[in-house]
Fold these 2 entries.
Entry 1:
Amino acid sequence: MAEIIERERKSSVLRRPALPCLSRYYTINLTAGCPCECRYCYAQSFQPNPGHGKVVFYTNTADLLRAELPRKRVKPALVYFSTACEPFMPYKPILDSLYKVMELLLDHGVYLLISTKSRIPGEFLQLFAGHPGRVHVQVGLTTICDDVRRLLEPKAAAVEERIAMLRDLISHGVRTEVRIDPLIPELTDTEESFGSLCTEISRSGAKQAVASYLFLRRANYGGLAVRYRDWSFLEMLKRLYTHKIEDYCGGTSIRIPASTYRQNKYERLKAIAGDHGLTLSLCGCKNPDLTFDCCHPALPTSTHQPEQEELFSSE
Ligand code: SF4
């Protein structure tokens, strides 16, 4: 586990993410920095990241939120956990604080969208089960080979734990899907790798998945110079990362595989997923040349309340 530095938050808790595709939601990051050390992560270059092996834990988040929520003229419809850290870090004070924050939001009728690569503790599952239809969890998983997982996401939960997590969430009635992101060409998008992933997802009871290829920008380039057996990231990169999107999600420039590669692959991956009873969606932000799909779920109609209309006016 990373070194935890406890600090009091000075600014407001509810923030609008900078990425335009998420900016209609609010987000809460309980920490600055993340212990998972995913090699493709660009969030760790954001300020105020404390640097490798360190995590700043904002200890007063729940108290600030309790004071902040009643002051909001328009109540948040959905809060996303989290844009720049793993929410369920295995450190009790962080989990205790996260529980208070999530409980507070759910008690205020706020919908939670959670993206995680960790095991979610049982008390959270009970909490979510008590608010049916209010919590949507995306479990990140791109491979069932734990050697590949360890190479790409060295300190995130093992494959087995994430599959178990899918089962636990589904058995507690939580809306659950798998986030197959980032797919890495010729490593995790092969028939064998993707097919066995779909087999395990399907066995877990999940029915939905969202996928997207790894995109590259300066901040996440260096850490990915890895090899696995006869596959080399740098060699693959030179051949396939030939397409540039200048206006990715509102401004930055990214590199992704060429349209023809992605189009052919996505069609094939969707077919494989379909053979396993899974519906696969794509991320439209990272594939504006291919789809308008969104990789974040719409709110269920039962949660559509008057104060949430503002959220959907742009849809
Ligand atoms: S879990 Fe998310 S925020 Fe943390 S290192 Fe991995 S990609 Fe980055």
Entry 2:
Amino acid sequence: MTTSWQLWRDRRGQLSTLRLATLALLLFPLAKAALQANEIAHGARPLNELIHRAGFWALVFLGVTLAVTPFRRVFRYGNLIDIRRMLGVGTFCYIATHLTLFFADQSYDPGKFFHEISHRVYLIVGAAAWLGLATLAATSTDGMVRRLGGIRWRRLHQIIYAIALLALIHYFQQTKADVTVPTFAASLFVWLIAYRLLAWWQETSELSTLSLLALAIVVSILTFIGEAVGIAIAFHVSPLVVLNTIFDFDAGIRPGWQVFAAGLAVVAVDAVMARWRGRAVRTRAVAAE
Ligand code: HEM
């Protein structure tokens, strides 16, 4: 018999390495912050530093949660679905911490807290994403799935894409200088959503290696264009001038290249897994003869 708090056990009550690894991943930012506690405490704004860390990791885990669907297909590992809820609830825990720390930063004064949120656009956008995530967390239990019914539950959970968009806008808006990391994060989310759109368009659940390669190229090109347009608007220059510098690696590797490398890594994994599975099927067929 297993109880629901035993997160490291699967539905049959057996110890699950996958769940243990997920738990370790979810606790990693906490452990990192604990190890750096001294450095954080002596920094200029310790509370602000923690707000940033919690927000950053919430966004990372939101991305990892969205990656479960494509990755279970690319890795040919259907069991990954078992950790999706854990990742989603973990994301909410970080975002709840993000907001609690912000409340602490407003001296636990509800008046100040609501005044601050309602007077800053990036906080209104963050609050909308926050409420969306809270709704998804509240409806993530088995009881709520039963109560809502599969179709309504799935429809409601589609708001995850709007939440991701709002969270990315919030991230961009609060970034004061270099937007390289937010641009890379946005490009990864574009890949995750484009994967689903392509699979839906091709009426398949598993994209071919060639389709994954096309996806890597298209998302990378969109990232270069998006970044160039963003810089062009911010600095009043032509986007073509920015695009002309994509092969200039002196100033660092651009998000377009970073997402291309990530996309190629997925292509490589898919190609290896496709071969491996093909070989396993052939071996089984020979054994059955
Ligand atoms: C009411 C809800 C929210 C409030 C009040 C809030 C507040 C804040 C504040 C004050 C900052 C730091 C800004 C600065 O130092 O200038 C921040 C940064 C950030 N927030 Fe939020 N936020 C909210 C919701 C969210 C949500 C839902 C997400 C994502 C799922 C998110 C992700 C982030 C990220 C990624 C950063 C930047 C972290 C970094 O610098 O690496 N926030 N937020």
